[in-house]
Design goal:
Layout: H1 14-22, E1 29-31, H2 38-42, H3 50-54, H4 59-67, H5 81-92, H6 99-112, H7 123-134, H8 141-147, E2 150-154, H9 164-170, E3 177-179, E4 182-183, H10 195-206, H11 213-229, E5 234-239, H12 250-261, H13 268-289, E6 292-297, E7 299-300, H14 305-311, E8 319-320, H15 326-338, E9 344-349, H16 355-361, E10 374-376, H17 386-399, H18 419-437, H19 445-472
Parallel strand pairs: 1-2, 2-3, 4-5, 5-6, 6-9, 9-10
Antiparallel strand pairs: 7-8
Helix pairs in contact: 1-18, 4-5, 10-11, 12-13, 16-17, 17-18
Length: 473
């Protein structure tokens, strides 16, 4: 049987074929937001088997297996690696129409040169072939990354991370640049029963005492300095379903934070106000440092308490939340803009009902001489499928400037998920090629090629280079 992922897979027009093969496919990858383990890269980890590499850390696959009725013990539990692999084999043929089917086939083909459908008949042979290859030097972590032509990877890191792995990578001969980014949610997790434990750990990191809001802000600033010294250029916040912004002054915030330090419960109103104050403080710090702020909006993370208890908060069972409270988002951005410290910002939405609102916001907060200050980030999480990517491209084109878009990122824990850059680029080239052949765009190949280059690579590359230059100065 011929591979359905042939040379022109997902591309249905000649212009798109040319744009993909001659332009997009030749460009390196910059993955500016992911959850890869930097220690694996620093140690150039050798994966023991296909499950460890391909399945164990992929909540997309876990979710599909749960929907397919696989018991949790057979997904994240104590059964053997081969049994977990077999459970994925039993599920993959059920993913027809889901992007997992495309991604999984692409991952096996591009990394292991396996160009056949995974099923019960060939499962054991593919398992043995892949495991044999994984024991070879050219299938260790750094070589796998090189197979994707990755140039820059930006990981997600907690404020208390020591960044030792990033330091080690920076002084290695690794051809890929791996930079940290701040995932700042733990700073604002005031309702967490273990929040005071986190504060104590922060005190140890700064070698100081946090007894009031002023101390807390100073401690945060020290850690931001530490991240900056280690190459951090991005910060990230999850503004989940129900996000609300209610700005308050420092005096009120000081009183509320005192209750936090004294382990007193916060009323919902007080929580929102303290959260808003500190979010605004952090946005101010990012802007002054020249960092890019990322806002991931609209996830409903509190779904199954049972699954959360079994596998932790990032186990693949969150869902799409309600549409963004756009007034709160604009109040937050405007608060920073009025103070002259609004950082460049990437807006992601999990709810596609927000596409038009967020795409239109890219023109609402601008800066003289700065291209694409506010970005409508790529189709994210439940939206990074064929239809979702095409919808996203349509929406950003209709309400903003597609030419300034910074392209795809994986938001993934798996090295193999870098395949999604190829997936995105094929869809992008098909879309632009189709518009051209329909007469919606001029048949100016120089113009079209530059558009593909900018979206796939140069727009985000230029933003990173600009920040590195600022920091070096």
């Amino acid at each position: 049987m011929d591979s359905f992922t042939n040379k022109n897979w997902l591309i249905k027009n000649k212009t798109g074929e040319r744009l993909y093969h001659e332009v997009a496919a030749q460009l390196p990858i910059i993955d500016y937001h992911n959850h890869l383990n930097p220690q694996h890269i620093a140690e150039d980890k050798k994966f023991s088997n296909l499950t460890e590499l391909w399945i164990a850390h992929d909540p997309y696959k876990h979710r599909a297996m749960r929907i397919n009725g696989i018991p949790e013990n057979g997904i994240t539990g104590s059964v053997s690696a081969f049994e977990k692999y077999q459970n994925w084999v039993n599920t993959i043929s059920k993913t027809l129409g889901n992007p997992l089917f495309h991604w999984s086939f692409l991952e096996l083909k591009r990394i292991f040169d396996i160009d056949e459908m995974l099923n019960q008949d060939n499962a054991k042979a593919i398992w043995e072939t892949c495991n044999h290859k994984l024991q070879q030097e050219e299938f260790k972590t750094c070589s796998l990354i090189q197979k994707w032509k990755a140039e820059i990877l930006i990981t997600s890191d907690d404020l208390l991370d020591n960044l030792d792995s990033h330091k080690k990578i920076a002084f290695s001969q690794n051809s890929v640049k791996v930079l940290p980014s701040l995932r700042a949610d733990s700073i604002l997790d005031f309702g967490n029963p273990k929040y005071l434990d986190w504060i104590q750990k922060l005190e140890l990191e700064i070698n100081g005492i946090i007894s009031n809001l002023s101390d807390f802000k100073e401690a945060i600033k020290k850690r931001l300095d530490f991240f900056a010294e280690n190459g951090c250029l991005f910060a990230d916040h999850a503004l989940d379903s129900g996000f609300s912004f209610k700005p308050i002054d420092e005096q009120e915030a000081t009183a509320i934070f005192k209750k936090v330090i004294q382990n007193q419960p916060l009323e919902p109103r007080a929580f929102v106000r303290l959260y808003s104050f500190m979010l605004n403080y952090l946005g101010d710090e990012y802007g002054r440092r020249g960092w890019i702020m990322q806002l991931h909006i609209g996830a409903q993370r509190n779904t199954s308490s049972r699954l959360r208890k079994l596998v932790g908060p990032a186990g693949g069972f969150a869902s799409i939340g309600k549409a963004c409270e756009i007034n709160s988002l604009t109040l937050f951005l405007d608060s920073l803009d009025k103070a002259g410290v609004l950082p460049e910002t990437i807006l992601y939405t999990l709810n596609p009902a927000d596409n038009a609102a967020l795409a239109s916001l890219t023109g609402s907060f601008t800066e003289d001489g700065l291209v694409g200050k506010i970005q409508f980030g790529p189709a994210w999480w439940y939206n990074d499928h064929y239809a979702g990517i095409r919808k996203h491209l349509n929406d950003i084109s209709s309400y903003g400037l597609l030419s300034t878009f910074i392209g795809m990122t994986t938001d993934s824990r798996s090295i193999l998920s870098l395949s999604r850059h190829e997936y995105f680029r094929r869809i992008l080239c098909d879309q632009i090629g189709g518009w051209t052949e329909e007469g919606k765009l001029p048949k100016d190949m120089a113009l079209l090629e530059q558009l593909i280059k900018d979206i796939s690579y140069f727009n985000i590359k230029n933003k990173i280079l600009k920040r590195e230059k600022i920091w070096q100065e």
